[in-house]
Design brief:
This protein is an alpha+beta fold. It has two helices and four strands. This is MIP18 family-like domain-containing protein.
């Protein structure tokens, strides 16, 4: 399931760099619990990055497309 989440995260493109968040190396980890909750640990390209809210929203949307993710994505 983690590989499927990573696959979904590859669809999330940084609009300034035009590269996905996985290939940029922004994703540090993906954890999924037994209830289908997913925790994506990531960093931003710069401190105070103005894309924080945008990237969080796009990541939640991408990961929530997976049927096995039934709970909260943060």
């Amino acid at each position: 399931m983690v590989n499927q989440v990573i696959g979904q995260l590859q669809t999330v493109i940084d609009p300034e760099l035009l590269v996905n968040v996985v290939d940029l190396g922004l994703i540090y980890g993906v954890d999924i619990d037994d209830e289908g909750n997913c925790l994506v640990t990531m960093t931003l390209t710069t401190a105070g990055c103005p894309l924080n809210d945008y990237l969080n929203r796009e990541i939640r949307q991408a990961v929530s497309q997976l049927a096995a993710i039934r709970g909260r994505t943060v």
